[in-house]
Design goal:
single chain, alpha/beta, TIM Barrel, Recoverin, domain 1, 2 domains, 8-stranded parallel β-barrel, two-stranded parallel ribbon, 10 strands, elongated, binds manganese (II) ion
Length: 387
């Protein structure tokens, strides 16, 4: 089986529709630039019927970046699809992404429709979308909570109607890796090579990346994800985590993406500068502490051989360098290395002086930066010269 996994980025759609993440058109264009640098295969730019801003963003990104596949979202209705098609009018490689809920709970309480009505609407929407563009994706909203028999049936039907990609989202982040792999495996078997099976996972139980990876092992070949894992509620599958698992543990996940990983950090930073929050400090891959070492034993090991405590090179994801934070958990080895790096050559006594001062100071602080360490080194030389 082909091991190429398509990366469908929905930072500008699912990500953008979460609290604190609204973006205007110029802001979406700025983030889109970074997504193009990153090499995402499909860039979902908005939900055109939802607002004029979304319509304009899809249009602007389609004109600005002809090299990328641009997707626009619409419910399985005539008006939504016509609006999506219009927004994509200038796209060189347009994709219409249409969806309808398929789970019993959504059918009963939200749509008040039968499975047959949902299936008919889905097929009609896909056919209409295909009258505008060649590339149509169908999503079975709340797919992970849908009966697998119905998922197989609707997946076959929408592919017969012209869909090339069938997405089975875990819309509410409820699934687990073993369960999701079973569901996806069934749909993959039902569709064979007639369509690409896609996954879209939410992180309500912290399993979005694990579920996506399990699905890829079960045959999914498109993953929908976002930068910094932003998205509805607890967010979506984090693009950077998914990609770096496949790169770092290619022995266990022998799959390839088209992502230029060295552009990850710049994309993460750009997004953080546009929306109202950045990744939490301990966020994998892109958090401020992701490549920082403070504990003395770790710093000592790291300085002797990087791989003792680091599984990825920070430069491989575009982070300039590892940070050795000097705090109360740091040891003398790290301190000595840092001071030498700052251009000082201290005697043992001077180093002891700095170390004592550092541990006192660091008790009251979060960690010392280079200028403060340099100041301590100078004071140690003066103090010991006088005595
Ligand atoms: Mn979603």
């Amino acid at each position: 089986m082909n091991n190429r996994v398509w990366i469908f980025d929905t930072t500008l759609r699912d990500g953008e529709q979460s609290p604190g993440c609204s973006m205007n058109v110029p802001e979406k264009l700025r983030v889109a630039r970074k997504l193009v640098d990153l090499g995402v295969d499909i860039l979902e730019a908005g939900f055109p019927i939802a607002s004029d801003g979304d319509f304009e963003a899809v249009d602007a990104i389609s004109r600005e970046y002809p090299q990328v596949q641009v997707a626009a979202l619409g419910r399985a209705t005539k008006l939504d699809i016509e609006r999506a098609a219009k927004a994509l009018d200038k796209a060189k490689r347009p994709r219409i992404h249409t969806f309808i809920a398929t789970s019993d709970i959504h059918l009963k309480y939200k749509l008040k429709m039968s499975q047959q009505q949902v299936l008919d609407d889905a097929c009609a929407a896909v056919e209409l979308a295909r009258s505008y563009v060649d590339d149509v994706e169908f999503s079975a909203e709340d797919g992970a909570r849908t009966s697998t028999d119905f998922l197989e049936r609707i997946s076959r039907a929408v592919v017969a109607a012209g869909a090339r990609t069938v997405n089975i989202p875990d819309t509410v982040g409820f699934s687990t890796p073993d369960e999701y792999a079973e569901i996806i495996g069934r749909v993959v078997a039902a569709l064979g090579d007639t369509a690409i099976v896609s996954v879209h996972c939410h992180d309500d139980l912290g399993l979005a990346v694990a579920n996506s990876l399990a699905a890829v092992k079960a045959g999914a070949r498109q993953v929908e994800c976002t930068i910094n894992g932003i998205g509805e509620r607890a967010g979506n599958c984090s693009l950077e985590e998914l990609v770096m698992v496949m790169k770092t543990r290619n022995d266990r996940y022998p799959f390839e993406t088209g992502i230029n990983a060295e552009a990850i950090y710049a994309a993460s930073q750009e997004l953080a500068s546009v929306i109202s929050f950045g990744p939490q400090p301990n966020k994998a891959i892109v958090g401020a502490n992701a490549f920082a070492h403070e504990a003395g034993i770790h710093q000592d090991g790291y300085l002797k051989e990087r791989t003792t405590y680091e599984i990825m090179l920070p430069q491989s994801v575009g982070v300039p360098e590892s940070r050795l934070v000097l705090g109360k958990h740091s040891g003398r080895h790290a301190l000595k290395a840092r001071i030498e790096g700052l251009g000082f050559n201290l005697t043992r006594e001077e180093l002891d002086f700095v170390y004592t001062e550092l541990t006192t100071l660091a008790d009251n602080k979060k960690g010392l930066m280079d200028p403060e360490i340099a100041e301590l080194a100078r004071r140690s030389q003066q103090a010991l010269a006088i005595s």
